[in-house]
Amino acid sequence: MALPRLYILDTNVLMHDPVSLFRFKEHDILLPMVVLEELDQHKKGLSEQARNVRQVSRYLDEMLGGLTDLESGLPLPYAQGRLFFQTSAYRQQTLPEDLAGGKADHGILAVTLAVQHQRPDTEVILVSKDINLRIKGRALGIRVEDYQSDRALEDADLLYTGITTLTPGFWDSHGRDLDAWQESGRSFYRISGPAVSGWYPNQFLVLPSGDEQGEEFAAIVRAVHPDHAVVERVTDFRREHQSVWGVRARNQEQGFALQLLMDPEIDFVSILGPAGTGKTLLTLAAALQQIFEDRRYGEAIITRATVPIGDEIGFLPGTEEEKMQPWMGAIEDNLEILARGSDAGGSWGRTATQDLIGKRIRIKSMSFMRGRTFLEKFVIVDEAQNLTSKEMKALVTRAGPGTKMVCLGNIAQIDTPYLTETTSGLTYVVDRFKAWEHSGHITLRRGERSRLADYANGAL
């Protein structure tokens, strides 16, 4: 018979996810006094972590109510377990002399060891997002775990890519009841068969040709029903006459990205890929095309998480947009490339184009997004892999009528502490939006920046 479990939570778990208190189902939770002390130290400020701490404090206050006897624990809402607090000092177990006293992490370890000694009939588990604390815990014989409930997936390799390659014999098993028709110059197919149930709306289907001269079949799923799916042949954006703001797709994946970016029926697009795959350039080209030529959106709003790779450079002067300029180097580089399309007018034409583009591109800080509503805007969230799922929800819910939102990022380059490939907000939205008919996702793998960048991506 399995022993009952008692989870001891580290401070960083509560700071990362305030709802973690209610995610342990029928198991009990214990909060050491040092954790409450650390929460008190981090409650001030406007950061996301400070907001989470204050939310945890509100949850605890609501559960405590007028209770004064905490020995029997508090019932946890939305769960079957109970919440316990450390109500007395534990002196039964001491730490090794090498672990200095007074440090919060070591206090948590001491409490865990003491609870293990007091409750031999219970499986005591320390939950922390601090890798070093978990290593120390294992060295002391403590069972430790990472916080799992914030994971969108168990393995990042299982993340939805937006593309599926059909088997060579696909038409033998799915072509018997095939129905094809054209509508407004677009080719549609109604396909039935066993593979249909595993498809998602706006997923791309690729069937390579059997020989080099043959034409491959590439389509996008438009609707999925229990017994069939409707697919449409994709537009080949690699052709000159299909260029977007003077930009042509250099490979099939980029063409698929432009298909999603230019589709007015798709409100949310996520694009993953390493550096040099063209995520930002393609998105900006689609934004400019639909703002100036198609007049589908009023302006583009660009934001990103301001997480530095190296040391901080201090406070930045100027207005909101001026403060964001150092973080938007990639955007400016790509806008400079897109403005070269006006070379026919000489330097005066390029300057006029840059000024015109600048009036329709707004760079905004993520810190001031709460409470806003974007109407008929093309919103670009760059470096979205550095956002938590909560921050991503706060951004996506800002979209009003007629707004398209595009999230760009590379989950292999996460700079935010306590975020991983499986817990990133970008991973979260890719997984949660894949079945929605007005969203689309594509993972770009082939770099197009330069042969040096391509080699560096593979070799370094």
Describe the structure.
This protein has 460 residues and is an alpha/beta fold. The protein contains 14 helices and 18 strands. It has helices at residues 11-16, 33-41, 48-64, 104-118, 131-139, 170-174, 252-261, 279-293, 320-324, 329-339, 346-360, 389-396, 425-433, 451-459, and strands at 5-9, 28-31, 74-75, 82-85, 123-127, 143-145, 163-165, 179-183, 186-191, 204-207, 217-224, 229-233, 268-272, 299-304, 361-363, 377-382, 404-409, 439-443. The longest helix has 17 residues, at 48-64. The model is unreliable at 308-314 (pLDDT under 50).
- Give the radius of gyration: 27 Å
Low-confidence stretches: 308-314
What is the CATH class designation of the largest domain? Alpha Beta
Gap from first CA to last CA: 50 Å
Count of helical regions: 14
CATH topology of the largest domain: Rossmann fold
Number of strands: 18
Neighbour order of strands in the largest sheet: 3-4-2-1-5-6
> What is the 3D shape?
elongated
Number of domains: 3
Kindly estimate the percentage of residues that lie in beta strands according to DSSP.
Answer: 15-25%
Largest sheet: 6 strands, mixed
Kindly report the average pLDDT value: 83
Helix content: 25-40%
Structural class: alpha/beta
Looking at CATH, the homologous superfamily of the largest domain is P-loop containing nucleotide triphosphate hydrolases
CATH architecture call of the largest domain: 3-Layer(aba) Sandwich
